[in-house]
Specification:
- This protein is an all-alpha fold and 117 residues long.
- The protein has a domain of 52 residues: DnaJ domain (Helix Hairpins).
- Helices cover 60% and strands 0% of the residues.
Length: 117
């Protein structure tokens, strides 16, 4: 008595599918571990303020390049001030630093700190 060929083929197909699923799961785990180990990109400047504000620090505060045009500086200043305005619960100190950054980047001030804080 011989078995039909369909009985022989189904275990082969089943083991192939299980093997493919195992390899896929292994690759998924490796990818997840590589993702978790990758360094995170920070979108903020981690340091405090310098004693005398430089053009670089002013650009970091406003989130623009040091060589940005006046319109970009004004737009960035407005965006940052809306988020940090003292009348909306923001800090007076941060607002003064944001204003100082705008003045330095627009060339009205040469970097000497006239901040009240």
């Amino acid at each position: 008595m011989s078995l039909p060929s369909s009985f022989m083929a189904s275990p082969v197909i089943m083991f192939s599918a299980v093997g493919a699923a195992a390899l896929g799961a292994r690759q998924l785990i490796k990818s997840w571990q590589a993702f978790k180990a990758a360094p995170r990109v920070r979108r903020f400047y981690p340091g405090g303020f310098e004693t005398t504000m430089t053009r670089r620090e002013a650009a970091l505060i406003l989130g623009v390049r040091e060589s940005a045009v006046v319109e970009k500086i004004k737009e960035a200043h407005r965006r940052v001030m809306v988020a940090n305005h003292p009348d909306a619960g923001g800090s007076h100190y941060l607002a003064s630093k944001i204003n100082e950054a705008k003045e330095i980047l627009m060339g009205r001030k040469k970097g000497a700190s006239d901040s009240a804080f």
